[in-house]
Amino acid sequence: MRGRMAVAKSLSISNNGSYIGANMRFISNRVNRGLVAVWFSVAAFATIGSAQAIERIAAGATPASIQAAVDQFRADLGGLNPNNGQSFKNGRREINWDGVPDGGSSPNSILPDFFNFNSPRGVMFSSTAGPFVQGTIAQPMQVSASAASGVPTRFGNINPTYTNEFKAFSEQRIFTTTPESNVLEITFFIPRTNIPATVNGFGAVFTDVDTPATHMQFYDQNGRILLTPSGSIPTADKGLSFEGVTFTDGTRISRVVIVLGNAPLSVGNTDGLADIIDVVAMDDFIYGEPRALQHHPADFDGDGTADLSIYRPGNGQSQWFIINSGSNTIDVRSFGLTGDIPVDGDFDGDRLSDFTVFRPTTGEWFRLNSSNGAVSVQAWGQNGDKPVPGDYDKDGKTDFAVWRPSDGNYYIIGSSNQNLQKTGWGQPGDIPIAGAAQ
Ligand SMILES: [Ca+2]
Ligand SMILES: [Ca+2]
Ligand SMILES: [Ca+2]
Ligand SMILES: [Ca+2]
């Protein structure tokens, strides 16, 4: 092994192909929430759209007041997926709390991972600022009791006034953090696994929002706070409020923080006390299908698990046969021509593998972007090169790369900055590990 290392900014390899790479960094347009507030006083809901996010907001006295906004948000996210332990490329999940058994409801706490393992919907809950009490569930959260259980409904078990203070959107259970904290944190997982995930949208129903204190904060996969949503949940005394945001530009939510009023539910925190206390509870959660936070090799459906995938060279068109590990469904697709070499990678950064081939005769890469179905072409490499795509620059996106047996060099285009890199590593006769199957 010669072990020489060199980096060159320009190479003899042509780089005249189009490069299409979505920048996943998020810069949102702030929405005019002041305008929204005015609309609420006269209308049941309002819709705010930007190039990058669709925001559905509504508030009013009854479920009908927010129904249209909720249904629009559902349509923004796509069809409802079953909670059967499977995972899907698209669609949405919902939690209405109503299927939680009495044993997991007030006055008992619900397990923080109930909706990832017991009823697998890919979310975990935690509550900040709560004191840890050894030997108990440190951060107890409650789903309210059913009428049949005999326990007072809508958190009347915590404070008798709450039953008349709170309303359900979907009868009859609602949800709260209690009693130490009014801040809820939600993180996402591939259902029934510990594989961290993100979603493209999140929305929630709130009840008895009286002040601007109640709001949601979304964080992206880098831990940066997103600018949407940017304001408070609209108020509706003893009524229902809804806000849902769907990102349409590839932005992913990895964590949601919800601040509920200005005080947690407790026997001493009667709503309106001293014209200060504002307690708020929640009903339905609606969110996009969780997708793996990081790309995993040969993962075409985004469940963080490699899919059995075969490329069958054809006389002319070649075919791909994929078993989606999340849903046990099969995708068959024609992509590539005789002589092409199939490669694996997530070049467009949506965490799903893209159908991609390297064409030695022309030194071109053809790929079908999983994010939008568009075909893009990149010139990189020449006949005789071994395609060795991988994430060489740590940005989470696959880089175009070849290893050239004739000179023992790696040639890489960094996806983060398009910089060209030439590194000597290996010698004629060696086999690069990435792409070794070719
Ligand atoms: Ca309140
Ligand atoms: Ca998979
Ligand atoms: Ca992709
Ligand atoms: Ca990269």
Tell me about this structure.
The structure is a single chain. With 438 residues, the protein is mainly beta. The chain is 8% helix and 31% strand. The protein folds into two domains: 33-292, no CATH class; 308-424, Lipocalin, CATH 2.40.128. The chain is built from four helices and 25 strands. The strands form six sheets. A six-stranded antiparallel beta sheet has the order 1-2-11-9-13-3, sandwiched between helices. Strands 4, 7, 8, 10, 12 and 14 form a six-stranded antiparallel beta sheet that branches. A four-stranded antiparallel beta sheet has the order 18-19-20-21, with no helix packed on it. The protein is elongated and about 80 Å long. The structure holds calcium ion (4 copies). One calcium ion (CA) binds next to loops.
CA(first)-CA(last) distance: 22 Å
Number of domains: 2
How many helices in DSSP terms?
A: 4
Structural class: mainly beta
Largest sheet: 6 strands, antiparallel
Strand content: 25-35%
Ligands bound, unique: calcium ion
Spatial arrangement of strands, main beta sheet: 1-2-11-9-13-3
How big is the Rg? Answer: 26 Å
User: Average pLDDT across residues?
Assistant: 86
